[in-house]
Protein: BTB domain-containing protein
Amino acid sequence: MADNTHAPPPPKRSRIEGDSITFTNSTNANNRCENSVNSTSSSDSSQATVSLIYYSRLFTNFFQIQPEMLSTTGKYFVLKRVVKSVKEIEEKRIVTEAEEHFGFHWVMVRKMEGDRVRFLVHCFRWPNTENWSIEVDTKLVVRTNRIRAVRDGYQTLTTELIILPTSGRSLSIEWEELKQYLLVDEVTVEIHVKIKKTTRIYKDNLRSFDDETMKEFSDVVLVVKDKKFFLTKQLLAVHSSYFKALFLGPNRESRRTEIKLTGIDPADIQNYLELLCGDNSIDEITIEGILLVADKYDTPLAARKCEEFLLKKSVKDLKKKLQMSVKYALDKLKKHCLDEIKSIADVRSLLPVNVGELDPSIMQELFKKSLALHIAH
Structure:
């Protein structure tokens, strides 16, 4: 039997709780990361509702929780930090480095509140953007090898320049309890984020798909959430094997004049359709949403245009480009990224926090590169 002499006593109930936060405006973008952490406050709000859902059972003096995780399709990502010591929590308010996801830069932060530690998500946006909003589902996870706790959340984020959490729900844990866990094990803190809907976060629309002209000549309407796009079946079928099978196949869908699409953002389908119509809708912010739609509806033209942008114009870093090349099967971009590796430092910069999450094909290529570089030196 394992020696549990130094393990913390089994809790009688979950002591992982949540507090309310909202998302409000800030007009100061200077030192926005540090300032946002310093100015975070807590208050009750009816704008967000979060409930801790868990099924627990005692196991080796700890409790385990079996969660239903968020769907990993669509606009989904995870912020993660493996904490190895109490000192890391005490010294680091910004828990993770900024990561770019879907045109935003995100960080995880921690805030000490009395005898509890709160973990929050901060999101940063370009300073020339007008008022905008994002609707997200979240899962906040604190776990060790013996404990796992999950909190569900739903939030609407709105701001001009920067999101400052002042209401909503966040994950918190008793500080003494967390310190006890860190005495015997590493603690992994994860925030799973699923973007559901965005408003006014991208460029202005280059064309309208719901004006009178489009309505007059369209023979199909795509419905995405509360937005309608009046189109021709020919345009969609020419570029997408999905829509070709849908409209030209023998099924009942081919005779429908209104098709409801799920799992995508109206803003992304807008940019995707603009691209199919010949407009230049690709930029650093819109590109990943377009790729999501292109991948879902098998649209080679859109994927190729995005790949060309990433190869020739994008200023995204090598790690982000490599991640996108694997996720969206962009082989030319993948080869380009691997060819750009010139040193062992380059190899290290491409590794995720958890190496096990790395795509096997990329792991193999990075191993070959690393071996070749060691031999060369």
Notes: DSSP finds 13 helices and 16 strands in the chain. The two ends are 48 Å apart (CA to CA). The longest strand covers residues 187-199.
